[in-house]
Specification:
Four Helix Bundle (Hemerythrin (Met), subunit A), five-stranded mixed beta sheet, Heat Shock Protein 90, alpha/beta
């Protein structure tokens, strides 16, 4: 009987993904210590398992690839592996991962394994005949084009679909559910008792309403009313106790279920080791990732959303932070940079620390870039503290990189990181940086996001929710205790000045209530900052399920979600980070320059010998309001630049008559174009080409393999 493979593919894919993760981890470790016999055996076992299970399901090419991987490992075991062993091994693992993903998706496996099989056979030094490899692959489809550019980490392959649960935990949850059902039966019985009492009370009212009641009948009615009142008090007491017990059971159940949904943060971080290796090589640097506290657990929902922001921070550490090996040695540092990710518990939260030992963030560069982009007036920037200046890296489109590549520098990362952590995960993020000593990001996250503890207040008659985790304390102060400090209000809290703003002003609400003699101040914390917000009425705390805003409202920024109270009143839950950001602008907005309308005033020259590429880039830019001219090659572009004035130039490299490198170098010798942003867009993805682009004066380098519309637009926005 033919086996129905579809029943087993999901389980096969989940198992194969686990084994591939172990193999990646093992090969990374063996690259550092090829003599680690225990790790080598682990990789052997995983390869052997994939070989057997894939053959069982008829994935012959996958099975053969795993088999040849085993053969290559034998060579490593004997200490005779060639210098390119690990490059080929990682290439084979990537191919296996892609094949597993295709099998999991239920589509035909189209990967061509011939090239990698031959390379594995070469590693095995001819121990398996080449003809065998050809026999396996001769009927397979042709190879797919290889992608170019920076290696990408697919977080979608992470094993989030299933969570393993201890049977003991399931027993605990089952017991709680049984208790809740039993308690529900008691509540139903109480309701029946109330219905009986209601009918008795109705009869008594009919009796009293009757005319001509004698004293005896009236005494009976009063006695009966007393019994009803006593019974009502008893039932009310039962209900109160049962509801309290039900609340305890519900909370316990939520915690138990939350624990069952918990995944270790290593679920995300384990795949980062390989990524750090690959991107370091791509950048011509040396870096290693050290993870501490990987067993720290977070809700599955948080784990799923945390991968991308963490990846942004690690990528920035490599590209912006870690220096080139020669530079590190010159500075007295080891040639290999270290990125350390630490995790742990702190009360009801989880903390993450992402630290590198690189160059740090140059604060003066931040000040200069913010001034150049018109974000703040010079006087405002000069008055900013170091912490305030560092926080500007979280602004959209902000980057201190002087040379932009497809790795980073476009300024499209840290604002997304903050938005995800603060608005998406209800967490907090701040940073510290020492020039020459490295940068450290501090992230705080709730254990779970399904149900949050919310502090309810009113401001200008609106019902507002503030996350309890962000609240330090609540004060009632006299109005004259709120003092003027420069252009802001503040209160003195234990010898420390804390800025104070009216929440209604932050929310642009019209508050009709008079100021009164006292003010209710909720002191909040975001990172290391404190802020007091003046509210009208304190209502209290409540556990609430916070629902995200509908898509058409997500640009509001300050609102992170909505919730319903037990009385079905709508609560607006605020984004703490945005409250702090807007509070800084209350009262100082006049100092900030007006937003600049830039698109229609910016004139761009696009230079490429491909008609198709020219038109694609022209259409993208014109659709966003830029004025665009085109040139057919480097010489044509140079002549057009000399005959007019352009605010930005986009150029290819390989073109007839004059290439992009020569064009850029010549333009930089012209006083009119000495500081004009020049973006190279090329299919050449070698590091040497990027370095040459930097040497001749390019402002950014985009690889066509990683090119997309948002990539180009974000790069232009960062440069102008």
């Amino acid at each position: 009987m033919k086996i129905d493979k579809s029943k087993y593919i999901a389980r096969f894919a989940a198992e194969a993904e686990e084994h591939l993760a172990r193999m990646n981890e093992g090969i990374l470790a063996l690259e550092k210590d090829a003599g680690d016999a225990g790790m080598l055996n682990q990789v052997f076992r995983s390869a052997h398992t994939i070989k057997g299970s894939s053959r069982m399901l008829g994935f012959s090419a996958m099975g053969e690839l795993a088999h040849k991987f085993e053969d290559a490992l034998e060579v490593l075991k004997r200490g005779k592996a060639g210098g390119n062993f690990f490059h080929v091994a990682f290439k084979a693992l990537d191919l296996l991962s892609s094949m597993v993903a295709q099998a999991k998706a239920g589509v035909a496996i189209t990967e061509d394994v011939s090239e990698v099989l031959h390379e594995l056979l070469d590693l095995a030094k001819g121990e398996a005949p080449v003809a065998a490899a050809r026999a396996v692959v001769e009927d397979l489809p042709a190879p797919q084009p290889e992608s170019t550019g920076v290696p990408e980490l697919s977080l979608k392959k992470a094993r989030f679909e299933t969570v393993r649960v201890d049977t003991g935990k399931l027993d605990e949850v089952t017991k709680l559910v049984v208790q809740m059902v039993s308690n529900q039966s008691r509540l139903k019985q109480n309701l029946l008792s109330l219905e009986v009492l209601r009918k008795d009370a109705a009869k008594m009212l009919e009796m009293i309403a009757g005319a001509g009641l004698d004293k005896y009948t009236l005494d009976q009615a009063l006695e009966h009313a007393g019994k009803i009142a006593a019974k009502l008090r008893q039932v009310a007491s039962y209900n109160k106790n049962d509801l309290l017990y039900q609340g305890i059971l519900t909370q316990d159940l939520l915690e138990k279920i939350g624990g069952m949904r918990t995944l270790p943060i290593s679920t995300v971080l384990d795949s980062f080791h390989r990524y750090v290796r690959d991107i370091s090589i791509s950048c011509g640097k040396k870096a290693e990732l050290i993870v501490e506290g990987g067993e720290t657990g977070l809700d599955k929902t948080i784990i799923e959303k945390l991968g991308e922001p963490l990846l942004h921070m690690v990528r920035n550490s490599i590209d912006h932070g870690i220096e080139q090996p020669a530079e590190r040695l010159r500075l007295g540092k080891p040639d290999t940079g270290v990125i350390r990710v630490s995790a742990g518990y702190d009360g009801g939260s989880v903390y993450l620390v992402i630290a590198d030992d690189g160059a740090g963030i140059p604060v003066e560069k931040i000040r200069e870039k913010a001034l150049h982009k018109g974000m703040y007036a010079k006087e405002t920037l000069d008055a900013m503290s170091r912490e305030d200046l560092l926080s500007l890296i979280f602004m959209p489109g902000f980057s201190t990189s002087s040379f932009i590549t497809d790795i980073s520098g476009r300024g499209v990362g840290m604002d997304v990181v903050k938005e995800c952590i603060v608005a998406g995960l209800k967490g907090a993020i701040h940073l510290q940086s020492v020039e020459g000593g490295g940068t450290t990001f501090f992230v705080r996250l709730p254990l779970r996001v399904a149900v949050m503890r919310v502090f309810l207040v009113t401001s200008a008659t609106s019902l507002i929710g503030l996350l309890v985790d962000s609240i330090v304390e609540v004060l009632t102060v006299q109005r004259d205790e709120i003092i003027d400090v420069v252009d802001k209000k503040a209160i003195r809290l234990r010898e420390k000045l804390v800025p104070v703003v009216d929440l209604a002003r932050v929310l642009s609400l019209q508050n009709e209530a008079g100021p009164g003699g006292y003010a209710t101040v909720v002191v909040m914390r975001y990172g290391e900052e404190l802020l007091g917000v003046v509210v009208d009425v304190l209502i209290g705390e409540e556990d609430m399920e916070i629902k995200p805003l509908p898509p058409h409202m997500k640009n509001s920024g300050i609102v992170s979600g909505v919730a319903m109270t037990g009385k079905n009143d709508l609560v607006i839950v605020l984004n703490v980070a945005k409250v702090f950001a807007l509070a800084k602008d209350v009262g100082v907005a006049a100092n900030a320059p007006a937003a600049q309308t830039v698109h229609k005033s910016i004139h761009i020259l696009v230079i490429d010998d491909s008609v198709n590429t020219r038109e694609i880039e022209r259409n993208i830019l014109e659709s966003y309001g830029y004025r665009v001219d085109v040139a057919v090659d480097g010489l044509d572009g140079y002549e057009k630049a000399q005959g007019g004035h352009y605010d930005l130039i986009v150029t290819d490299i390989e073109m007839p008559r004059m290439d992009g490198f020569t064009l850029t170098e010549k333009l930089r010798q012209d006083a009119d174009y000495k500081h004009t942003p020049i973006i190279i867009v090329s299919s050449r993805d070698m590091e040497e080409d990027k370095r040459r682009g930097m040497r001749v004066g390019a402002s950014a380098y985009i690889v066509k393999g990683s090119f997309d519309q948002s990539n180009l637009l974000a790069t232009i926005q960062a440069l102008v």
